[in-house]
Amino acid sequence: MAAKSGFTKAFSRVALGTLFSRILGLVREQVFAHLFGASMAADAFFAAFRIPNLLRDLFAEGALSSAFVPVFKQDIKERGKASAFELAQVCFTVLTIVLAVIIILGALLAPYLVKIIAFGFGDIPGKAELTTRLTVIMFPFLLLVALAALAMSILNSFDRFGIPALAPALFNMGSIAAAYFICPYMEEPIVGMALGVLLGGLGQFAIQIPSLHRIGFRFRFKPDFKHEGLRRVGRLMLPMVSGLAAGRVNIFVNTLLASLLAAGSVSYLTYSYRIMHLPLGMVAVALGTVALPKASEQAANNDRAGIAATFYRAIHLCFFLVFPVAAFFIACGVDIVGILFQHGKFGPEDTLNTYHALNWYSLGLIGFAGVRVTAPVYYALKDAVHPMRYSIISVAVNLVANFLFIPFFNFAGLAAATALGGLVNFAQLLHALPRLVTEINLGKVVNLFVRTVVAAAIIGLALYLIGMHPRMTGLGDHFKGRLLRLSIQFVIGVSGYFVVSYFLGSIPALRSTKKQ
Asked: Which residue range forms the structural domain that includes residue 102?
């Protein structure tokens, strides 16, 4: 099989699985918005869920996965499948023990954590207490999602991408089911959504167990904290944790500042971030998921030219698919938010406020996506120190920008600062990459970046002007009118983008012309 077509096929599987999961995620958010809007209960839930999520990137899809895959792939090549599976068994065991302790401590310290992360909630009677209860309930989600992420890493290392990509859909299904079958029977319906988080996390892990069995993996309790492979994972993971911890500090500050602003601010930022995360997950995260094991295998074979080729394929697809989505969100975001969320307790003012935050997140989407695709090259080569440094610098930029932007943009200033931090992080990673892999030509990447940005900007401006036409505005702001207007803009945007991209030469080749 040609290398490019193999990469594209794997990416397509992950992207489709992620798309299905993200669509269910939007359905989950729609159900949530319909039931709770931007209410006190919604703010409490989002703030409480953010507390275990602060640790999620450290022990799940972030540092753990990025550190585990290169070591696991190296063990498969140098020591064989049995040795690699023993490493995985040790990692499962140690992860369970460590997170069980963290969960117990988190539950005991929940009242203090809430006071820190959502200080402003204490001014509203009952809000901090509700957030604390929800935090205690949802803390075990951390263990479930971490086990699911480790299972995903093992399967991805064996080129099994389909089931792991579908696994997050089980989380969304659990949350949706809770909304209809648990919430109505709870004295406080929002508690039912917290229970749904646990149900969904369990499903996300359980669906991958049969696939693990098919590749020959069996769970064994191996509490070997001195295992040599575990130490290698730990050495690579430590700087990643430091960099991600800096990012978690930024999220903590954002939540704290949002809790001090007008009621609903936390919810507006959360809803808009969820929309932005659809293309981020479907494209950038999917590309990073496929690129990491591929680049790790090439690194184990000392194939630097192969690593460069993998990066070019990933970054080209990332630019081509993500940039027009960002332009589409900016040009048509009011209708997107209205269609998705303006139901029940979520009103027109909530739609506009969510759109204001979405605008800034859309600009940051370029940086967020670029980081997801570029960082795996560093991790595949077991360099976690530089991404850590760049992450800390970008967080510092973000924190300063928070206080500069809030006076001008209110809660949306937090989204603007986050976007700026993401762009700074990507710029640093990209600028330093040729020093790590000399076969990568930065000028080629920048040229591609400029051509794709120009194509996306042209289409975004065209869609905005089309939306302002009297015949389009005359369709109204009700659901059917918005859906029709958005459908027309989408068709014009997709076809127009391909035409403009063709003339600018920015359409990626999906297949290679020769065997590799």
From this structure: 40-246
